[in-house]
TrEMBL record:
KW Oxidoreductase (keyword) present: yes
Biological source species: Lentinula lateritia
Reaction(s) the record says it catalyses: L-proline + a quinone = (S)-1-pyrroline-5-carboxylate + a quinol + H(+)
Stretches assigned to the Proline dehydrogenase domain: 180-577
Alphabetized UniProt keyword annotations: FAD, Flavoprotein, Oxidoreductase, Proline metabolism
Similarity comment text for this entry: Belongs to the proline oxidase family.
UniProt-listed Enzyme Commission number(s): 1.5.5.2
Source superkingdom: Eukaryota
Protein name per the record: Proline dehydrogenase
UniProt keyword annotation of Iron present: no
Cofactor(s) this protein requires: FAD
Length: 599
């Protein structure tokens, strides 16, 4: 009954005059008024929750870790109602766009400020953020693992120096720049992830380690503009005779040379060079810790204007930290690949970029780490390219020299590109698994023939993977394609039993699980994650619950600081929540609430 009452209350609240009252008081434009009405409804709904303690377990703030959202309670009535409210609000693009301004207005009004904070915590924060601190997420990690799911851990505070030094910021936090706190927090999260894995699989286990850490480079330096400057420098200094690959092209090992010379660059100031050098040294520090502790690192892809710089750093890190140890060398990492780069299928360059990355890894004897996603910034990429074309580069962040935008123009093209990349990477995994078993069964050193390459067997006899892929997607068709490619390539075998939906359960051996992982964002598409768990059988989790910038947490816990980040991320990630994902999630929560009450 509660659920029905709540749904009815929600519907009423959304259509009632509650929001209109807010409109009259605080909004001058009709557009803002409409969005305020929606938030007002949400606040009214929160008030409703507060009046019903049986369904408002989060009211004792700050929360105890045990009370956080977890996979085991993701189907509780409270979580379902929260998901319903959050995804209802995410289904309104106007509301998402207006959220930062709206929050600023609401946070400036005494009393309303407290209600707003409570509302955001019990809704968006709990839905998308795993915890206030790394330690605080441990119960969540345990509950995911119990459900055979790993976690992609991501601690990044948004770098906004203005806010970081505003009067709201405590003096302790002011003592250290935001990006440095972020680096420290990253290292702390590696330790928390490693301690957790050690407690599950053992300190020296080389396989089955399923708490990984994601890093976002723009959060790790004082001004992300320095990355754009480096990208511009890289584009201007790339040899012109190289085969043309659509912007942002492919990285070259010499891309970072400018950081080690005193040569002048018209794009980079001394300050840029200093902070880029420091960024690279911090990335090495993070990677070293990850190497020592056996925690995989995934570097997020961002807007195309940052990518040449991000690609260059990612290439340098992979070449150093993913090096394949020679026989008998015990000094290398215990997990491989250690560093993964992200490949966005919506970029026209991606199939060529991926193929070149693979060739480079083969030629230089390091393991290639691939995170394959569709890409989160499509609308911004299109508008930035259009603005540069119409109004000139000074009015746009785009630095592409190409006539066509860097991203595909239709969803179908992105989907085909994603599929093509899936097939390419699964083929490489097959080659690697075969070649690895061949070298394990042969005691002599000889040349083995892979589909794309020749390599010496002694480099492979470490038994560690030469390729690893994480497929990040909420698209059911993509997930099914990945599973069928694994089956078709002999990387999975059918157990001949059904998963309850008429589909065969697939058995994946350890050597495949060490190379192939699937992931969804935390708080989104639980149904798909559960489907993968039901369709696969393996000794370690095949699927991770990830965190991407939708939920870039402020790890030091202040909700006041979290809110602007959450709202800005919501805008940045409209393409994650778009394409009907938010509406589908809302409908799913609605169905489950209904089933719980009347089922
Ligand atoms: C674990 C994980 C990690 C992630 N990390 C990153 C990251 O580092 N960097 C990043 O950019 N994104 C990242 N994402 C987000 C990802 O790129 C997608 O935005 C998101 O997953 C939605 O795509 P989909 O495959 O899940 O679903 P779908 O709904 O099938 O695809 C939506 C996507 O299709 C593309 N698209 C939509 N409309 C068009 C159009 N008109 N023309 C061309 N293409 C279109 C866009 O890429 C859009 O995001 C991550 C996602 C996950 C699950």
């Amino acid at each position: 009954m509660f659920a029905l009452a709540r749904q009815t209350a929600l519907r009423r609240a959304f259509s009632s005059g509650l929001g209109q009252q807010h409109t009259r008081h605080y909004a001058s434009s009709r557009r803002l008024g409409r969005t305020l009405a929606l938030v007002g409804a949400g606040l009214g709904f929160t008030a409703f929750l507060v009046e019903h303690p049986t369904i408002h377990a989060d009211s004792n703030l700050p929360q105890k870790p045990e009370s956080r959202n977890s996979s085991s309670d993701s189907t509780s009535l409270r979580s379902l109602v929260r998901a319903y409210v959050v995804y209802s609000m995410c289904s309104f693009p106007t509301l998402v766009d207006a959220a930062p301004k709206l929050l600023k207005v609401l946070m400036g009004i005494p009393v309303v400020r407290n209600i707003t904070e409570t509302f955001v915590r019990v809704t968006f924060f709990d839905q998308f953020v795993g915890g206030d601190t790394a330690q605080g997420t441990l119960p969540l990690l345990s509950s995911f693992r119990a459900a055979n799911k790993g976690v992609l851990f991501s601690y990044s505070i948004e770098v906004d120096e203005n806010e970081a030094t505003s009067s709201n910021t405590s003096s302790k936090k002011k003592a250290q720049p935001v990006h440095k706190r972020c680096v420290d927090e990253m290292i702390r999260s590696i330790d928390v992830a490693a301690d957790f894995e050690d407690s599950i699989v053992g300190q020296h286990a080389r396989s089955g380690r399923r708490t990984w850490v994601a890093i976002k480079l723009t959060a790790l330096l004082p001004d992300a503009q320095s990355l754009i400057a480096l990208s511009s420098h890289i584009l201007a200094t790339r040899p012109q005779h190289e085969p043309s690959i659509p912007f942002p092209g492919c990285p070259r090992p010499t891309d970072l040379n400018v950081l080690n010379t005193t040569a002048d660059s018209k794009f980079l100031s001394e300050k840029d060079i200093a902070s880029l050098r420091e960024l690279y040294s911090d990335l090495r520090r993070i990677s070293l810790r990850a190497q020592e502790r056996g925690v995989k690192l995934l570097i997020d892809a961002e807007y195309s204007w940052y990518q040449p710089a991000i690609d260059a750093m990612q290439l340098a890190l992979m070449r150093e930290f993913n090096k394949i140890p020679s026989q008998g060398d015990k000094s290398g990492p215990i997990v491989q690949p250690l560093v993964y780069g992200t490949f966005q299928a919506y970029l026209r360059r991606t199939p060529l970029h991926l193929a070149q990355s693979y060739r480079d890894a083969q030629a230089n004897n390091y393991a290639l780490g691939v995170k394959l996603v569709r890409g989160a910034y499509h609308p911004h990429e299109v508008s930035a390219h259009e603005a540069a074309r119409v109004h000139g580069k000074q009015d746009s962040l785009s630095i592409s020299p190409d006539a066509l935008p860097p991203v595909w123009s239709s969803k179908n093209e992105t989907d085909s590109c994603y599929n093509e990349c899936v097939k390419m990477v699964v083929g490489w995994v097959k080659d690697d698994v075969r070649s690895n078993s061949a070298s394990a069964s042969s005691s002599t050193s000889k040349l083995s023939v892979g589909r794309w390459f020749y390599r010496k067997d002694d480099a492979k006899s470490s038994g560690l993977p030469n390729i690893g892929v994480l497929f990040g997607s909420h698209n059911g068709a993509s997930v099914k394609l990945i599973l069928s490619e694994l089956l078709g390539n002999g990387l999975a075998t059918s157990l001949g039993v059904e998963n309850g939906e008429g589909e065969a359960v697939l058995k994946l051996e350890d050597e495949v699980i060490e190379r192939v992982t699937l992931a969804q964002l935390y708080g989104m598409c639980d149904e798909l994650t559960d489907y993968i768990v039901r369709r696969t059988s393996s000794n370690a989790p095949m699927v991770l619950n990830g965190r991407f910038s939708v939920c870039r947490a402020v790890p030091y816990g202040s909700l006041t600081e979290t809110m602007p980040y959450l709202s800005r991320r919501a805008i940045e990630n409209k393409s994650v929540l778009g394409n009907g994902h938010a509406a589908e999630e809302r409908r799913r929560a609605g169905r489950e609430i209904w089933a719980k009450v009347f089922g």
